[in-house]
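Predict the assembly for these two chains.
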Amino acid sequence: MDTLTDLKANTRVLAFDIFGTVVDWHGSIVREMHQLHPQVDGNAFALAWRAGYQPAMARVRSGELGWTRIDELHRMILETLLPEFGLTHLSEDQRVHLNRVWHRLDAWPDSVQGLTRLKQRFTICSLSNGNLGLLTDMAKRAGLPWDCVLSAEVFRAYKPDPATYLGVAQVFDLQPSQVMLCAAHHDDLAAARACGLRTAYIERPFEFGTHNPKDVSPQAANDLHATSLLALAEQLGC
Amino acid sequence: MDTLTDLKANTRVLAFDIFGTVVDWHGSIVREMHQLHPQVDGNAFALAWRAGYQPAMARVRSGELGWTRIDELHRMILETLLPEFGLTHLSEDQRVHLNRVWHRLDAWPDSVQGLTRLKQRFTICSLSNGNLGLLTDMAKRAGLPWDCVLSAEVFRAYKPDPATYLGVAQVFDLQPSQVMLCAAHHDDLAAARACGLRTAYIERPFEFGTHNPKDVSPQAANDLHATSLLALAEQLGC
């Protein structure tokens, strides 16, 4: 593993996972559901929607579905949830609006300031399974100061496909070791590391809600471990 | 043609051509050549390099070359120019550095302020044949405040392929008429218009140098005609 000095000297691009790492999908959906459909258990609804995410992408990875963007996958999952949560009366416009809640997720409180500091020294980009339009709308609303919005949509492959991690290095003509993935999920980081990227784990204990804290213990294989994006900026001397 | 009121109400995304429209490729290359290789006629060199651009892309469009990024096309053209301009002594590192001058182009004086104003009301993105890494480096250096960097590289097709213009609309789930291409080149705008986009012509009389002004007369088919990006912001009420 590189020393911190090596890491600072060699890293050129920081690529960020988005859902859970930079933005609070659970809290944002709970808040919107409380406003739009207060009769629904927002916590259960948010968790159920997110639980459909990996299986939906798996259908694309396996070839069962052709290339399908997250907006469309979110909509497919939403349709299956409506009966369960008593929302079958929603009109098409209401369904479209609700599905776009993923474009309106709020950043964690440290994200904008942390990214702004990191941007002074590194090129910062998203590397999310979210589609380009979703990520752009989200960034514009939340003030996320990306140098470049990168997405599975650009590489036509979903993480953890190596084409996504290696794709970032190729876009910037870098060695994989000059790119660091920053994420709140150890499996995403492990897949990036297998491609030669450096990795930073970001603690997001309340990704699944404050009543459902997740284990954020360090794993030794990660190059860095930070409690927030501000802490990451501090560690990287920004 | 829409009225100005319709245009303001319906347009959601402004997509910008880059080389010549947002940045001054000719002046930037002349200035760098004056510093790096003062013995070379920078004006002739810049014009010759740019003259190779459309023929190189035509080789990709025709299928003679597989998908090739502009960085690589610029390098291929550069290699053909080195003998002509007495630069065959350049080392590999010097050639790489010179080729990346396209990542270091300066914005026209009104670009950053104009885009910053337009961004308040519209989603603003690049739509350039330049590759993502080039456009990101350029934006970071020049301070271009894109909401999203879009490129031929995302669509694997070069303008004027309809896949590029329609691709912008698809990324943002919009009708083509909700996207406006802003460019200093009537052929680019005509191709966008054929796909249903709205178009704004930007006057850049000195794209080819101050001693070689180009015709910037209005063409009636464009929805808007502006003397600068600040003037465009003014017209669009930003």
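Chain B has twelve helices and six strands. The CA atoms of residues 199 and 228 of chain B lie 14 Å apart.
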